[in-house]
Amino acid sequence: MENNILSKVGNVRRQVIEDNYGWGLYVYKRANGTWFTDGEGNILNIPSMRNDISKITELTNAAKYYGDPGDGNCIFVPGLTRVSDETHSEQVDRMKQGLIPSMNDLGAWADAQKTVDVYGQEALEYDE
């Protein structure tokens, strides 16, 4: 039965949606392939536009300042933003209330609007 399911999944048309955002974060990856972190799982990063040489240089210099030889790579992650502990807490609270956690999640807002268009405003109302 499992093979039958997998064969059906393999025949499904799929479309890759590329993230072509020009904004995002550069994150620093050491030459040994590990992420440069602060020991608490936070990766050294800088908000930037794609291919911003000044931000790449700034990130590399920060890695050197914190003890890396500077021979790692700056990797661009499109569409990613920093979130502070306070913002994270607010997003968790919004999610628990049944709201869209991030006010900046344009995809979630677009999906919510589609739901309203199809099912009406009452589809989004939450009764406890």
Walk me through this protein's architecture:
With 128 residues, the chain is of the alpha+beta class. Helix content is 38%, strand content 14%. The chain has helices at residues 2-10, 53-65, 85-96, 106-119, and strands spanning 23-29, 45-49, 73-78. The chain has a 3-stranded antiparallel sheet. It is elongated and about 55 Å long. The two termini are 40 Å apart. Residues 4-9 have low confidence and may be disordered.
Task: Write the SSE topology.
Layout: H1 2-10, E1 23-29, E2 45-49, H2 53-65, E3 73-78, H3 85-96, H4 106-119
Antiparallel strand pairs: 1-2, 1-3
Low-confidence stretches: 4-9
* Cα-based radius of gyration, to the nearest Å: 21 Å
> Ends: how far apart?
40 Å
* Spatial strand order of the main sheet: 2-1-3
**Count of individual domains:** 2
Please indicate the percent range of residues in DSSP E strands (runs of 2 or more).
5-15%
Helix and strand succession?
HEEHEHH
The largest sheet, given as strand count, sense and whether it forms a barrel, is: 3 strands, antiparallel
Mean pLDDT over the full residue set: 83
Which assembly state applies to the chains in this document? Answer: single chain
Helix content bin? 25-40%
**Which secondary-structure class do the elements indicate?**
alpha+beta
Let me know the number of strands.
3
Q: Count up the helices.
A: 4
- Globular, elongated, flat, extended or rod-shaped: what is the shape? elongated
Quick take:
The protein is an alpha+beta fold. Helices cover 38% and strands 14% of the residues. It is elongated.
